[in-house]
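note to self — DONT lose this again. spent like an hour looking for the file last time. sequence + predicted structure for the chain T wanted, 309 res
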Amino acid sequence: MDAINNMTVFVRVVEKESFTAAANVLNCSTSSISKRINQLEHDVGAKLLNRTTHSVLSLTEAGKIYFERARRIIYEIESAKESVLELTQSLNGTLKVHMTPGTGLTIALPAVMEFMKTYPSLTVEVSIKPEVIDILRMGFDVSIRSGAIEEDDINLASIDAHRLSKAQYAIAASPEYLSRRGRPVHPTDLVKHNCLISSRQHSPTRWWFWQEHKKFSVEVSGTLFADNWSVIYDAARSGLGIARLLQIHPAQHKFESLEILFPHLTIPDRVIWALTPHMRPMPKKISVFLDFMRAAFTKEAQAEPVIHA
């Protein structure tokens, strides 16, 4: 069991990027963590971690290879234990979910809350970070993000990509802004307005639309550029300008105090992706979660729209 315990400690140290953080998760001392890492390196005959006086950790080449294998082994052991429990119990254990802010806060998080109500014995750890992360290294079971319909940057050798729903951008503004600056009647009118630019979105200043079976774009500009979804959303609510926000269906009125503009002209060219470690069979907690999220998004897309002319 020492070999498995040492492997587990190593995986947690790499995931948490810190001896101290790993010790907190494993409920042991940092000296115990250091001892197990030293023992593991002695057993495998290679240095796995580079340490500095400032406690900064990095993997050696041998460490990178060992971590990839060790992470899969630990995941399999945890999944095997959970699979046995699932025979007699409801879903339990811990599900670690990463979400990017725009997708997470506007679309995924409400469905995750409903999922937790349905499966109260399962603990869900949610992390909202803007960057696309390495879910294997960070120890996540699922990462939810939006992207193009075809994604070329997903490493299918170690990651499975699951489509949860189609999505598209909604163009939205507050009643106060529309009263002050006038309501654009067509996307080309956006060039006359102050548009709020989300720099992390696809084509931040070029907004795409669809009319009469043709795709066209409008080059927008404005006085606010931000790399955080909540900044754009709050600015739109305050009446600063017009925002482009991600939704399952742009005719759904999900943004508090905002009105949706030309909902029938936006293009459904985005996808809500769920990325999971490549595992066979897939742990039940992950498969149930993915099915629940798909059903929640389908229900939302089919809901009666609220359209503002």
